Amino acid sequence: MPNPSLLIVPARFKTGRLYSQIPSNTDNRGDFNVTRATAATRVNSAGLIESVASGIPRLDYFASGGVVGCPALLVEPAATNTLSGSVSIDTGWISTNEAQTSGIVSPSGSNNASLFEAQSTTTRVRQTATLASGSTYTFSCFGKFGALSSGFSLNVFDENVTSYGSGVVQAFNLNNGTLGSSGTVGAGFTLQSVGMEDYGNGWYRCRMTVLMGYTPTTPRVGFRIGTAISGGRPLSVVSGTVNVWGAQLETGSVATSYIPTTTAAVTRNADVINLSGAVSGCIGQTEGTIYAEFEIRSDTTTRRLFALSDGTQTNRVFLYYASNALRAQIQSTSVSLGNPTDGYHKVAFAYQQSGVSGTLFASLDGGAVVSGTTAGTFPASLTTINIGKIEDTNATSLWNSRIRAAALYTTRLTNAQLAALTTP
Predict the structure, then answer these.
(1) For residue 325, how many other CB atoms are within 10 A of its CB?
(2) pLDDT digits (tens, 9 = 90+) for 83-94
(3) 10-17 — which CB contacts under 8 Å span 24+ positions?
């Protein structure tokens, strides 16, 4: 196997810069520029959620099962947590028939979570939300098992005087980390997906994605203590308790990294990671190979993984994810590598000029190599590398999860090498 001309395994960084392992960073040829105009959160090497300042690459150590793993580069588009008081579940929240105890240790390691106790079956904690017809929203919240109940239920609904006239609910079993049942009342709320991730120390991040069929009169999101659902509505368990922290409501079908709020909504800007100019010598101009080890989170939005270009969309070679499929593309011609499941994967994509056009070859997770031929001319010049974003200067079509490694080769690896390089 030949040596790569460029290799990024996220490890060393400073504000505005992510360092490469190859080539040597003494001349900065392989070091990437990092732009994000706001602070953002990550899981640090101790397994705790922490905030990092603007412009600092997010090396995220999260691994399933509540343990830390190797650091991965977290790349996300801009997102807004529209809920206030999301840390301690205080400002902006309405509570009925409950007792709240503050000072519980949260997934951040601070004493800023709360314990809620239900004092009746109608105990509920909720906040007015912005929900518009035709939009998709993801509501997420961290929960930890308390007592007398197996967990809590999250709900998105249109409230009336006593409960809600229509809405959807999903229960989460926090005692064993499994999904409970769901329920729907009325029309206009479609539960598209649900899930939960183990953050260790008994904490789970629970999420539900909902498509709105109309604009509610009194839109709310909230939770109930307990996992009981009756007639499509949640019921609280009297004297049951649950620990709660880090509520988030955002547009889209993915629960992005946690965005803390106090008295108002907060926006986290996009992570923009690219390099141009002197790096062109690391890019194979007439043939080459792109490699990446990356995480998939099911998402119907188009996401760029790794792109080579001249700084525009006129000349480009890239990997991207769209409609739950991973694709390799030269100019306007692409091939599908299938529909990878949620989790980490490896892909290698070789390209080669053939006359005025080009051919492409790609393998996912050691699978059979797929190939294709470009319909137009081969890219004339490749001088820019983008990780997790579109080929031009716009911060659009951004990746929405973690990237463990990225590499370039200035030669077209053989089909056998592509399969070997990506075998799990």
Answers:
(1) 13
(2) 999 999 999 999
(3) 10/57, 10/59, 10/71, 10/72, 10/73, 10/403, 10/404, 10/405, 11/59, 11/71, 13/56, 13/57, 13/59, 14/56, 15/53, 15/55, 15/56, 16/55, 17/57
What is the SS3 assignment for 288? strand
Residue-range domains of the chain with CATH: 6-76+271-422 (2.60.120.200), 80-268 (2.60.120.260)
pLDDT digits (tens, 9 = 90+) for 17-41: 999 999 865 555 789 999 999 999 9
CA–CA dist 407, 9 (Å, integer): 9
Round to whole Å and give the CA distance between 64 and 34: 27
Expressed in angstroms, the distance from the first to the final Cα of the chain is 17
Dist. CA 90–CA 281, nearest whole Å: 54
CB-side exposure of 293: number of CA atoms within 13 Å? 16
DSSP 8-state secondary structure symbol assigned to residue 378: P
Q: How far is CA 292 from CA 44, 58, 352, 360, 363, in A?
A: 22, 17, 18, 16, 11
